[in-house]
Amino acid sequence: MLNSIQHDVVFNSPGNTIVSASPGSGKTRTLVARAQYKLDSLPHRKCIGLITYTNAGADEIAARLITQQQSDVFIGTIHRFCLEFILKPFGWIYKYSKPKVISYDELMEFIELNHDLDLGNSPLDELNKIKKTLDGELDQSVSLYNNLSLSYVAEIFYAFLKEKRAIDFNEILFRSYKVVSENDFVVNSLANKFYEIAVDEFQDTNIFQYEILKTINTRQICTFFLVGDEKQKIYRFAGAIDNAFIKASQDFETEVRVLKHTYRSTNNIVNAYSALFPNHPVLSNESKYNKENFPLIIKQTTNDNHSQTILSCVDQFVKNKCELSEIAILSTSWIDAINVSRALRHKYRVVGLGALPHRSNNTSTFALLRGISRFNYSTSMRNLRIVKRNIDLHLLENNLVLNEREFTQATNTIISKILALDKSVDLICGITSLKEIFDDVFRINHCAFEEIIGLIDVAESSLWTLDKYLETVSGVAGITSNTIHQAKGLEFDLVILNNVNEGRIPYQAWNAAERRREPLEPENEADGRTLFYVGVSRAKAALVILHNWAPSLFLQSVRGK
């Protein structure tokens, strides 16, 4: 059921539409309703494009949308959109070879080969900083960990990509922008193919994505439906442009519509996150929790009692009959999230960072395994659609092609074979069996499983069976421990925000020589405000904020709410 504003933007906005959606205001519901409305009146030989920020976001939308034919709608990230509709059909213009996306395993190989570079604790994030500007020059506006020479590292990395005959995600966007910006017939083709292109999480759009969409819009053939919230822009470090909604309002020639009802949280939580922005829209709270008066809990902890405080909070939640899947502990860093998981998983099932006996694996192989595990433990058409989407993505990233019959056979075979496994076996044996199934179904070597086996501590592996592993991978019925960034778009009954400390949120560099923090940069303050806003607004019923002896400056705004 849509409210009046949602109904108006879905059914009564025939041209370009921009929607600003505060937390819990029904953004995804509105986006899906609009897509469904456009699908129901889809002209012959046209399709709908739904561009999401993450594959998880694409899964969520795909699970809700009813389509007659898969070819009627594209749902995926901007990188997949560019591969499928720009580089593969038009890359020949610049003699780009068939695009092969650098794999997670190859990126890890680069890091191991160049360990002397010292890319810090988040080497993949550092490599993601290596990107080009619109004119094709190396973007020098970023700095690498430990003040490494950006030009030097980029030279080594680009040589590695050339050796592997592969491109990374940043190069996908640059090449796609070049193809679109320099070839009118490509723009015409894209504009005529799509009836409407919708973009979720529009506030995190980067300059390449923005310019590609803006160029398609110049043809005034297909329409655009842009949805997001400037107050939740937490990916500036990944290239999100400033003032995306103001720019789009001018370039796409339409006003910004604001959703003014929220359906998620208690009034105390709504008031807390609203207080972070002086011009925050006044929201009408239609949540089922709007009559509840649970106070926000703000606690100071020490190094000695921090983990025990988190465990005690969780114990109290569970004692009050809260489902584990409705509890989340969100941190500002992945290291903190992993430490939380390690402190909890001896007593509770945990999902997210640190829940597994090895580090996270960001491959399409592991994403597919997660989807199949979720389907096996929670069988539904929604989860089956997610499995099919992940198979599609796995094929795309590995340059594999299956016809419709082969695709259906691969789907049925991999699900049934994994379901038939003896899940009481030890973990190493079980992962070896998973690799054999994946290799057999797709006829390629899945070295991601070999890497996983190599990362598992021998002592800890004895504590895991394949059943426990797959259930944890599925993310079903466990406490979420993750970063605030990774929790974007999610919601939980009970949320603990971990280590909301000075220097963490907002970020302030530590001057070790003078034993003080550097002055707070305005950009860091703005980024910290949006990150804290996202963290607070994940909570529906109860919110606990933990800090050390030096709390974040943002706690002044939410105390007493």
From TrEMBL:
Q: Where does ATP bind?
A: 21-28
In the Enzyme Commission scheme, what number(s) does this protein have? 5.6.2.4
GO biological process terms held by the UniProt record: recombinational repair
Q: Sorted alphabetically, which Pfam families does this protein's record hold?
A: UvrD-helicase (PF00580), UvrD_C (PF13361)
Q: What GO terms are given for molecular function?
A: 3'-5' DNA helicase activity; ATP binding; DNA binding; hydrolase activity
Q: Could you tell me which PANTHER family the record lists for this protein?
A: ATP-DEPENDENT DNA HELICASE SRS2, UVRD / RECB / PCRA DNA HELICASE FAMILY MEMBER
Protein's recorded name:
DNA 3'-5' helicase
* Lineage, opening ranks: Bacteria, Pseudomonadati, Bacteroidota, Sphingobacteriia, Sphingobacteriales
